[in-house]
């Protein structure tokens, strides 16, 4: 009985921001419409790749946001191992779920770009291969949480995997530098050459990145709120069984 009451009043309840979620949803929706306008009507058409290059304004921000999501998993997993507080575990779990969505979209948009440019849907070049490994790591993270019967033990194991799995993120980013590859070199970040993008292209890219970061924040908060609801429902089911 006490454990059920403890679950219903879990620290996770302090992590839900339904009012903020509504503001983020509306704001992100409006900004995304502006983003589509900038990508398809403002950004110039690439002289070499043509219209397919516009996938770049989705693919690169989505990939970066997936890295951000897994960094959140990394930090929150450390927080959970140090404090054993469920709020850190909730953040890590939610960020992993959202991160898997984003890295899946990064792979799909990369495939859409690759077909007309490389002539194949998939090739086992270093950037694609390491990104697929990253996807597999965090799918395994979610499966581990689902199949371990003890929730606290599953959270502990998942925290370890969340920390170790993050090692693949810098490997994905530096793969085009470390191994010979047909994948284009970086156009943003520390590895990018100066003037790699025209100013208008760079501005649209950064705007798109900001919008997808807001989308990530909204999805993260929404998933944490849903986890809180799930925990309360589990506590109510437990209480119902105890009273029978």
Structure in words:
There is one protein chain. By secondary structure, this protein is mainly α. The protein has helices at 2-8, 18-42, 56-83, 86-118, 126-147, 151-165, 168-178, 199-243. The protein is 76% helix and 0% strand.
Number of helical segments with 4 or more residues? 8
Question: What is the count of distinct domains?
Answer: 1
Structural class: mainly alpha
Strand content: under 5%
* Annotation, overall tally of beta strands: 0
Mean pLDDT: 86
Helix content: over 70%
Largest sheet: none
N- to C-terminal separation? 13 Å
H/E element string? HHHHHHHH
Pick out the low-confidence regions: 1-14
Shape: globular
Radius of gyration over C-alpha positions, nearest whole angstrom = 20 Å
Defining key terms:
mainly alpha; 244 residues; disordered N terminus; globular; 0% strand
Quickly describe the structure.
With 244 residues, the protein is mainly alpha-helical. 76% of the residues lie in helices and 0% in strands. The protein has one domain.
Which SSEs are present, and which pair or pack?
Elements: H1 2-8, H2 18-42, H3 56-83, H4 86-118, H5 126-147, H6 151-165, H7 168-178, H8 199-243
Helix pairs in contact: 1-8, 2-8, 3-4, 3-6, 3-8, 4-5, 4-8, 5-6, 5-7
